[in-house]
Amino acid sequence: MNEISPVTATRTGAPELSTGSAASGLWQILGEEARRAAMGEGLLARFLDLAVLGHDDLGGALAGLLARKLAEPHMPEERLRELVLTALADDPSILAAVAADLAAVRSRDPASETYLTPFLYYKGFHALQWHRVSHFLWRHDRQDLAHFLQSRVCEIFAVDIHPAVPVGGGVFIDHGNGLVVGETAVIGNDVSILHEVTLGGTGKARGDRHPKVEDGVLISAGAKVLGNITLGRNAKIGAGSVVLHDVPPCATVAGVPARVVGWCRELVPALSMDQMLPDFDYVI
Question: CB of 5 within 8 A of CB of 168?
């Protein structure tokens, strides 16, 4: 897998973030959008001040937002906020990935007309950023706390990603409901995953047993990808498919069990978000 990459694509009409200062550029845009929203809807003014306008940078706003989502009596908001800030300070690549993820939502989701809306409200985005913090803890031998966060994220957002899973940048988790990702899975850069997707194992055997998702892959709603297999770069997985074998790069697969039904019509399926399948004679 490649290292986390900067923002690679934007939708027509979306302000483009420079690759050298994606986080600071994004923060400026979020502030402008929050000020416009506060002027247009007075009832949201205090909320927007708490979430965005009262902060000095993207990291501080994100830490406060994430902490409020997961806080509970035995793990108060302040402790969670400091936990996120520590992770961001110790590993700057996390904040770069956050910016790439938010740009991915803005460019790939036609319902997202601003950066502010997914930043404030999209639970797929929130769950992914908490996973990045959990993965940071996992890598620093704090597995018990990482598992606690995984459990809370699953309770609040209905997204269950094992904290050991490395995830690249520019990842779009659309809706997120019912997403399950097993311990030894790997998710690359510029990947799009819809709701009710499983990246799971095929039994109770230990060891390397979960899928490896390469860059640019689109996994459509309800797909089940099982076993230590590879979804090749820029592959497309059809909705409701059950994938049990390696998928070649640029292949489109569909069905139960899935088989190759076509090849790339777009350069990067995860960016185009075209979930249509080629015409073919196949009965599930």
Answer: yes
Helix (H) or strand (E) holding 30: helix 22-40
Extract the tokens encoding 32.
Answer: 């402008």
Residue identified by tokens 């994606």 is 22
Query: Do the strands 251-255 and 258-263 form a parallel or antiparallel pair, or are they unpaired?
Result: antiparallel
Domain boundary residue, one of 126, 158, 190: 158
What length is written for the chain? 284
Answer whether residue 27 is part of any domain.
yes
**Do 231 and 219 contact (CB within 8 A), yes or no?**
yes
Which residue do the tokens 């416009």 mark? 36
Dist. CA 90–CA 127, nearest whole Å: 20
Domain that holds residue 69: 1-158
pTM for this prediction:
0.91
* pLDDT attached to residue 21: 73
Q: Work out the percent of the chain whose per-residue pLDDT is above 90.
A: 87
Closest by CA to 15, choosing from 2, 1, 26, is 26
